[in-house]
Design goal:
Strand order of the largest sheet: 3-4-5
CATH topology of the largest domain: Clc chloride channel
Distance between the termini: 75 Å
Number of helices: 23
Structural class: mainly alpha
Shape: globular
CATH superfamily of the largest domain: Clc chloride channel
Length: about 550
Amino acid sequence: MIDIPLLARPKPARLLAALRQRLRTSELWLIALSVGVGAAAGLLAVFQSQIAHALQSLLYGIGPYDRLSARAYIPWTEAIWLPMGGLALGAFTWLVRRRRTTPLVDVVEANALYGGVLRVVDSAIVCVQTVLSNGVGASVGLEAAYAQAGGAAASWTGGRLRLRRHDMRILVGAGAGAAIGAAFGAPLTGAFYAFEIVIGSYTPSAIAPVAAACLASVLAAKAVGGVPYSIEIKTQSSPDAIAYLLYAGLGLICALVGVAIMRLVPAMERAVRAAKIPTVLRPAVGGVLLGGLAVLTPQTMSSGHGALHLDLAVGVPLAILGLVFVLKTMASVISLGFGFRGGLFFASLFLGTLLGQMYAGATDFIDVGARLSAENAALVGMGALAVAVVGGPLTMSFLVLETTRDIGWMRSLTAGRMMRRDPQTIAATATVAEFRRRFPLGAGSRAILLDSKDRYAGLVRTATAYAEDVDLEGPIESLAITREAVLTPDMNIETVMRAFEASEADELAVVDDDRQVLGLLAEAYVTRRYASELERQHLDLYGEARS
């Protein structure tokens, strides 16, 4: 083979060769490459999530912000999509196997056995199978597709740049971890997923590239409208020593349940093979069983994120929690045993919250000297069962920390509590001259207009009424702004801030259902109040008191 001098090569080849040289000699260049790979992984994760959700919307008629597992019920006419989707998946898998003689390689296997070399075709097949499985409602998560796509993007890039084996493994781990981080909106979770599950070790040289990739992925996903995985709970009291012991018992139970679930999956696979069901029909047969479970409760469908929120918010009775736990476990085992593609990552999170709530409810019947919070127990169960099923104790610990949002104070801080209750008002039919007589410059910055029935008709800035080109005999209503943009007293502070952003107004009126004016709220005050409450929450979190 003749070595062509660098200057004699075409310009694109020279640039590529120079980049390869930089990557081999400078860690900063590898970090920069990881940022690009992480951003691509984040975009791919959002893209796959939207495809799966669009398919669920098409088949089951859910809205853009709804979750399939949170539906009230699934009729038989819609449950039929599970076996139909299974048939489509079986046909696709059969066609793939006809053209391939080697098994598909996932991202963890590629990093462990093949030095990070992951074929794009293999990854595309895995992604299609996973998105289709989740999209038709099977009880599987999209984490396999996320990690596979992120790892494939990294492997393809590293292959083009001829990275060394060590750098390639780091980059592939960073890509897979970045995809998981983007899916949850949790960069630390993604980073430790890369270390604990994909790369398999903690090395100083991998810290910066993996961290950079995960941060870039979360930012990229947020920029294109990706919705992070979040769990909203109210602030709970700190557990005492007895409660810590009880939570340790919950961890042990989760470990045993996780082992049982992991053994049920291969047992189901062996039973399906023993039944001699044709491979192409296995997902369809499994879809029939899943359809029956979906009719009993839609919480058995998809990854279960919507059901997780629903059960935590409503406070489901202990017997119902137990029934849902059994049915969701059956659905997950059937899905994987009959050939649907995906993983137990997302399902184990939901099952863990159910197990935690049941455990907390059970301790209420026993005098153990402590009362467990159902919300705290749900979070402990979520992390513990996920560790038992997936692995990665630090990954799951950070997942619980990063995805938990304390929204109790946000719900209580409403527009009705923050508004000024004595706003200046004037009839909308008044003239500009009358407005000037009632509100001289310096008396106030604005006034609220009322119609003939004393309903809100808009808002007028005082400075606008004193402009030189204003007709003094004209109606003040002609100068009104924010006629339709209003607040209601029950809006929490987050919704209020979004309303200000959407209306681009500095002040908004607070009205009741009949548009009777209750008060006035300024954006500047809301922002200050939000910052103050956030600071107080942080001080409480770290156990500090204000001076």
